Amino acid sequence: MLTYHILNAKKDVTANEPGQQGEGGNNNLPPEIGGTPPEDLEATQKGIDILECAYKYLGIPYVYGGKTPETGFDCSGFVGYVYNEAGVSSVLKGENAQTQYNSCEKISAEDVEPGDLVFFGSSPSNITHVGIVVNGDIMIHAPNEDKVIEEGSISENVPFCGGGPYYGRIN
Predict the structure, then answer these.
(1) Which candidate in 5, 53, 104, 141 is catalytic?
(2) Whether 141 is catalytic
(3) Quick check: is 129 catalytic?
(4) Which of 149, 157, 163 is closest to 35 using CA atoms?
(5) Residue 50 has what DSSP assignment?
(6) Catalytic residue of the set 53, 75, 104, 161
(7) CA Rg, the chain, in Å?
């Protein structure tokens, strides 16, 4: 595992002047978009790549069926886009949360690492939400309508989503 030192997204989200690029060099992102994963994050290089990519999209609006930063994201669209952009997997792109869960290696809570996926639903055969594990009880996800890509508590999402969490990894 590598120890990766970067700024905390909750404190250091950068707002750009009009006309400047959003984080990650994407001119199409609004100025308030973007951030960085927590400091002192212990993660594999793959986990770091996934989270750096995911945090670029903090603040992008939730849009049901959304799959790009320009249109907005739903939960599975966000995960698929991030994993594809981070070079981890294009398998997840364009799929729903259930199909993403079915595509993953299932892992226990004890084996979860930053960048792994966390799923919610009433059972493993009824997955309704997915996020990306940051650390401990924190994930980054597209929560629901009227919200934006944000950090959230894994445990607080269990009642909202009807069950879980279930964890998965794409190798």
Answers:
(1) 141
(2) yes
(3) yes
(4) 149
(5) H
(6) 75
(7) 15
- pTM summary value: 0.80
Residue-level pLDDT, tens digit, the chain, 171 residues: 323 333 333 323 333 333 333 444 444 555 566 777 776 778 888 999 999 999 999 999 999 999 999 999 999 999 999 999 999 876 676 689 999 999 999 999 999 999 999 999 999 999 999 999 999 899 999 998 889 999 999 998 888 788 889 999 988
Helix (H, G, I), strand (E, B) or coil at 52: helix
Angle, helix 45-55 to helix 75-85, in steps of 10 degrees = 130
Catalytic residue of the set 53, 104, 129, 161: 129
The H or E element containing residue 4 is: strand 2-4
Contacts of 4 (CB under 8 A, 6+ apart): 37, 40, 41, 42, 43, 48
Neighbours of 167 (CB within 10 A): 22
Assess whether the previous peptide bond of 38 is cis (omega < 30° from 0).
Answer: no
CB atoms under 10 Å from CB of 23, counted, come to: 20
